[in-house]
Amino acid sequence: MAIGLFMLGVSDSCQAAPGDLDPTFGSGGKVTTDFGGVDQANALARYRGDPMLFLGLTLNRSTVAVGDFLQLNPGRPTRPTTTVDKYVGAALPPESGPAFGCPANDPVAFVTEGRAVVLTCLSAPPQTFPPFARNVTLPADLPLTVANNLLRGAWPAGAPPGLYVVFEAYIHSGSVADGVLGPGDLLALAAAAVRSPP
């Protein structure tokens, strides 16, 4: 059984009464996203308004042990033509923060353009976060696709046990060069969780 996400757009605008479906969201206030044959509830999609860029992400497993292969499968339809910087990474277990020189709830790992992993703190200046890809043009009316195996790798020995939140994020290209991730810079965010037992 494939997992799908069904969302209702509830309005707080003047186009519909508060609490009613927003007819400008999806089709008649409803959007259904198929996560490409995934048979477990291990995915999250965030739907934003303007510029109507949708993003989803699934993982091939919900728990992982040393040597297990973890595979990221993103799905992305978009409406307008948009140029983005793409970030891929994982928030590490919160309690591991001090071990990485970060406050609790703050350690994060980014996958770079060269597929290396950089550990940093989420509270670090955003312009220091390494992107996975820069200046990616997403064409208008891109159909819903699931890119199997965006990243696939063996879970490393020495990774702290706990809950990891794997994410993919799109921001306006170059928008963090000023050192600020401001309102409207983040276009889409999708995340999925995986647990590494002790």
Any descriptors?
single chain, 198 residues, mainly beta, Immunoglobulin-like, 2 domains, two-stranded antiparallel ribbon, 12 strands, 0% helix, globular, disordered N terminus
Could you give a short description of this structure?
This protein is mainly beta and 198 residues long.
Helices and strands: which structural class? mainly beta
Beta fraction = 35-45%
- Overall residue-averaged pLDDT value: 77
Low-confidence stretches: 1-15, 34-41, 46-51
CATH architecture of the largest domain: Sandwich
What sequence of helices (H) and strands (E) makes up the elements?
EEEEEEEEEEEE
Briefly note the CATH topology name of the largest domain: Immunoglobulin-like
The rounded distance between the terminal residues' Cα atoms is 30 Å
As a percent range, the share of helical residues equals: under 10%
Oligomer: single chain
Sheet bearing the most strands, described?
10 strands, antiparallel
Query: What is the rounded Rg?
Result: 18 Å
Assign an overall shape: globular
Could you describe the 3D structure shown?
The chain has two domains: 1-34, no CATH class; 48-196, Immunoglobulin-like, CATH 2.60.40. It is mainly β and 198 residues long. The strands form two sheets. Strands 3, 4, 5, 6, 7, 8, 9, 10, 11 and 12 form a ten-stranded antiparallel β-sheet that branches. The chain has a two-stranded antiparallel sheet with strand order 1-2. The chain is 0% helix and 40% strand. The two termini are 30 Å apart.
